[in-house]
Structures are given as C-alpha cells and as structure tokens.
Amino acid sequence: MLKKMSVEEIAVTGKKVLVRCDFNVPIDENGNITDENRIIGALPTIKYLVDNGAKVILCSHMGRPKGEFNPKYSLAPVAKRLSEKLGKPVVMAEDVIGESAKKCTANMADGDVVLLENVRFHKEETKNDPSFAKELASLAEIFVNDAFGTAHRAHASTEGVSHYLPSVCGFLIQKELRVMGGALTNPARPFVAILGGAKVSDKIGVIENLLDKVDSLIIGGGMAYTFLKAKGYHIGNSLCEDEKLDLAKELMKKAEMKGVDLLLPVGSIVADSFSNDANQKYVPSDEMPDGWMGMDIGNTTIEQFSKVIKKAKTVIWNGPMGVFEFPNFANGTKAIAEAVAKAGENGAITIIGGGDSAAAVEQLGYADKMTHISTGGGASLEFLEGKILPGIDCLLQSGKKNIIAGNWKMNKLPSETEAFVKEVAKATEGATCDVVVCTPYVCLDAALKGAKDTHVKVGAENMHFEDSGAYTGEVSADMLVNMGVEYVIIGHSERRQYFAETDETVNKKVKKALSKGLIPIICVGEKLEEREAGITTELVRLQVKLALQGVKADDAANVVIAYEPIWAIGTGKTATAEQADEVCRAIRAVLAELYGKSTSKSIAIQYGGSMNAANAAELLAMKDIDGGLIGGASLKAADFATIVKAAN
Ligand code: AMP
C-alpha cells in the first residue's frame, strides 16, 4: 500500500480545510447519540487542525436519507456533542453547499470549526457528481479524508472533491494504512489470519488475497461448515453455501500448494434450533447429527486455534467464531479474543477487521487489548482483499525518502559483520534517509544482529524466484524474510554479466520478492558500447519495463530502482551528475507511463557506480536521484556515513 501524505505534511495554518469525517453515529428516537465512538475517533485530526490555526470545515454522511433533506438524519446532534468534546463552538450549517454553508464558511477565523449538513441530503453525493463535488470543494483550500468507513466508495465527499483540492489523509486513515497496510505488505511472522462470520461469499476475496501472505489461515464461524462439507463431512442444518462448495475445495487446494496451514474446526457446539436457549451439545466435526446446527467452535478447536494464534507475530481477525450475539454460543469467539489479546501481550501486532468482529471484541471487553480495531466494515474487507479504495487512492503520495544502500558484493567475513554493522549504525545515527546494508548470504545473520534495535536495515544481494525445491546453492525469498531481511538487490550488472541473470529472471525475482514483502532494489544500466551507440535511455527504459512486467501500481510503489552505468562500476569512472540525472529522469518518466505520475514520484531511484564520499553530495543534489547503491565505499563505515550525511 502506498504511503499517503498526511495532514501533518501539508501547511494548514490560515487555510480552509474540508475534512470528511465518519459521523455516522447511532441516534435514538429522542435525538440522543447512543454511541459516540466515531466522534471520539475523529477528534485527533480536528484538534490538530484547530491547534494549527486551520479553518476547519467538517462534513459527513449519516444514515441513508436517500438524497433528500430529512431532519431525522441531521448532523445537528453531532455538532453539539463535538462542541462539548472540543471545548469550543462548532457552527452547524443548515445545508451542504447552499447559502448557509457559504455564509458559515465565509468569514471564519483561524481555529474555527463549522459542520456542514449530511452530505447524503444530496443525491449527487453517492453519484459522485462532478459539479456537486466542485461546489463542495470550493468552500475550502485543502481536503482531508479521515473517514475510512466510506473510503471504499467513490462518492463526491470521499473522492470527488480530490479532483479540485490538494488531498491528504487524517490520522484515522493514516493509522489504518500504517497498521493494516503494514501487516499486508511486510508482516512480522508467523502471520495468522482468522476468518469467521456467516458467509463464505463475503470473504472469498479476503481468503484469496491472504493465502498469498499468511502462514496460517484459521476458519471458524458459520462459514467453516461450507468448507467442512466440501471436505465430505455431514453438517446437519449448519449454515452452508452449496454453490460455494467447489470454490471451498479450490481454496483448500491452493492453501496446500502455497504451504499455508489451513485450520478448520475439529468439533462444534451444536443446537437444535437457532436460539440462545436451544438444546446444545458438543460434537466432533465428523459426527454432526441431522437436525442440529453448528453454532460455535468446541473446546478442542479453541485449544488448537489458540495455540497457533499465541505464537503469531501478526494476527488479522475478521468475523466471529460463532453466534456470539447469543451468550450461550459466545464462548468460542471470547476464547479466540483472549488468544489474540495474549498474542498481543507477547508482542504481536493484532488487527481486528471492522464490522461484527469489532463489535464482538468490544462487547466481550477486549477492545483495548488490540493493536488496532479497524473503523471500517466493508472498507476494511476490501482493504484485506487487496483492492484499491478510491477514497484513499485519490490522496497525494507521501514524499519519498532517500535511500542509501551498501552493496558489499563478495567482501567481509561473517565474523567481522556484526561489529561492522554496529559501527555503521553508530556512524549514521540520526539519518533521515533509509540506510541499508546488503551483504553476502552468510553474513546476513550477523548483519541482522548488528542492526537490531537500530535504524539500519539489512538486504541480500540476490535471491531465487522459486519458493523452494531442487535448486542447489540457491536461497528463496521466504528464507530471507524468515531471517528478518527486508531488502534484496535484484539484477545487479555483475549477476547479469557473470551469472546468466536475464530480464526474465529479474522480473520473476521482483514479483516474488514483492509478494513476500521484500523490497527489491532493481538494478538497470548500460554497457560502455551501448552508451557510445547512443541507446542508453532506450535500453534502460526497456530494462525497467521488463523488470516490472505484471507488477501492479500498489506493489511498484515499494520498489527501488538503481541506475548503474556498467562502465562506471568498480572502474573508478563516474557518470557526471548531469549524465546520471538524465537517465534517472528517463526512468522516472517510464515509471510515470506505467503507473502514473504520483506513483512514479514515490519510487526511489538510486544512482550506483563508483558513488563515494567525495562525489556523493553532487550526485545526490540532482532532482531525480533519490539515493545511492554504494559498492566499495560501503565497506568503510566512515565513508558510508559521509554518503548518508549527503543524502540527509
Ligand atoms: P459476518 O458479517 O459475515 O462477519 O458474520 C457475522 C455473523 O455471523 C454474526 O451475526 C454471527 O452470529 C454469525 N455467525 C457466526 N457463526 C455462525 C454460525 N455457526 N451459524 C450461524 N451464524 C453464525
């Protein structure tokens, strides 16, 4: 997931800022808000804007007023409650883009807060009507989206306005991206996903996406019975989607092929009717009697699931393990909540997908034990499916970071590595750019020890594109990830020259690395005769295109491209800063053609080829050079630190 620019990265003082919040709170017949969690959730972004002297214009939807004014869905009670929470007046406009909205927002002082009426009082909102979006945008100078729950919808107030205003995310969306996005792109392992709830059909996309990423997939709740039936068990009157039996079989086969440990209930608490007071008993999964239905997972299953969960370092949970709304069938969900909380205590990142699982965790009293409870139901599911959410996609990219990576090549011994990496960490302390050391395979373990608890990241110099098998002498992405390695150099010219690396194998390796959450540093560059023949730009463009064939924009944003003129590697010759920048600019242009301008800007392009302590500052000052891949100079901590300083 791309890193989006946040409200902290844009100047807001004195500016009118339109903030899309999720104030869709439950209100009783007397107009009282019965759950203010969403208002509390919106406060950090609003307070930040007020404290920084912005003129804050809030908008939200509430309920489904079907495109026309309906006092039942007025946001006025929210304005009142928000004002109490902020300790300052919140002016309530009587409309969204009409006279009242214009009047209320016309003469705001810095730090003032106005709440517009329910955006869904206009049918144009859900239709994402451009002229409505333009009118709404005209009230402000900056757009902040902080409503994750509606980010999967391209509505006027979630996506439309971004066409007219610089658009960034608020703190709520930022956290969703950081925690959930982080887990999906670079999870600490073992990574365990727990899926439950009523329907397989709601979660197919999630299962498919997660099968590529998790180590274990636990399936419980009503949806488990479709899988059990697909395995040939009788399931009595339990929930089942017969039309999904083939798919369930296919998913189980896929899990096996990918080496994902898929766990299903080995026994259930069954009931003779769908009610809290029904007769109940425990039955193993292969002894389900006719006329009974599975309502909760049994104790042995709880034990098996919990054992896996407690060992996890990343847990994502979406969907209850049983009919938790009935206290007599809430035991499984409660026990799993407890196991997830325990994993959290042991240092795991624990994420609860929104909707019913969030409700279950809150109802059962485990909410504050989780790293993150997503504020979106449908949005959270689509995020876990790997879909691009329009309300997030439309936001500006966060500024990319410079990256200095050392490529040790075939140098240094494992025995000297730990101390050397510690020295590098010390010498580059406080670096604002990313600092990476890429070492021979046998040094990685020691490098990771040296880099532990420091800002320094560790990379490998190569990897194989297959997951495992008869490839004597090779190392897989999983092996690197398992060690804690985060980067991998792919397609270095020396590998292309001496070890038969081709554009095809580079592409396979890039895709594999990305699918495992490794950041590939993809090397491209021309030989001397190619430069002399005047085909440098053309050739490098082609290398980039071939390396990224089949890589989607979301993934591409995570790659690093290293431009290394082969004639300048290890020869002491360097391209002039202008020559280097010219090629890097051409790389940026091809990235923009492939993925759009904003993604191209978020991809770091390094220069490599005899970058050293003496010439780094000049090279790194060039517009399209975002860092360096450093050979010889990375073997001396002091020289490497000088280059890092130049990048800072
Ligand atoms: P979902 O919205 O798909 O996450 O489903 C949540 C709903 O699934 C909750 O209302 C649960 O009561 C229901 N559920 C969980 N397990 C079962 C089950 N074994 N049989 C019927 N419904 C279930």
Give me some keywords for this one.
648 residues, alpha/beta, Rossmann fold, 3 domains, six-stranded parallel beta sheet, 26 helices, binds adenosine monophosphate
SSE topology:
Layout: E1 16-20, H1 37-51, E2 55-59, H2 76-86, E3 91-92, H3 99-106, E4 113-115, H4 123-127, H5 130-137, E5 142-145, E6 167-169, H6 171-185, E7 191-195, H7 204-211, E8 216-219, H8 224-230, H9 245-258, E9 261-263, E10 267-271, E11 280-284, E12 293-297, H10 299-310, E13 314-318, H11 331-345, E14 349-352, H12 356-363, E15 372-373, H13 378-384, H14 390-393, E16 403-407, H15 414-427, E17 434-439, H16 441-451, E18 456-460, H17 477-483, E19 487-490, H18 493-498, H19 503-515, E20 519-524, H20 528-532, H21 536-547, H22 553-556, E21 560-563, H23 577-595, H24 597-602, E22 604-608, H25 616-620, E23 627-630, H26 637-647
Helix pairs in contact: 1-2, 8-9, 10-11, 15-16, 15-26, 21-23
Bound molecules: adenosine monophosphate.
Adenosine monophosphate binds next to strand 12.
| Average of pLDDT | 94
Beta-strand content: 15-25%
As for the CATH topology of the largest domain, it is: TIM Barrel
How many domains would you count in the coordinates?
3
Main β-sheet, spatial strand arrangement:
16-17-18-19-20-21-22-23
The CATH level-2 architecture of the largest domain is identified as Alpha-Beta Barrel
Description of the structure:
The chain has 648 residues and is α/β, with parallel strands linked by helices. The chain folds into three domains: 7-176, Phosphoglycerate kinase, N-terminal domain (Rossmann fold), CATH 3.40.50; 189-347, Phosphoglycerate kinase, N-terminal domain (Rossmann fold); 400-647, Aldolase class I (TIM Barrel). It has 26 helices and 23 strands. The strands form four sheets. The protein has an eight-stranded parallel β-barrel, surrounded by six helices. A six-stranded parallel sheet has the order 3-4-2-1-5-6. Helix 10 (299-310) runs parallel beside helix 11 and helix 15 (414-427) crosses helix 16. The chain is globular and about 80 Å long. The protein starts with 15 loop residues before the first strand and ends with a helix. The mean pLDDT is 94.
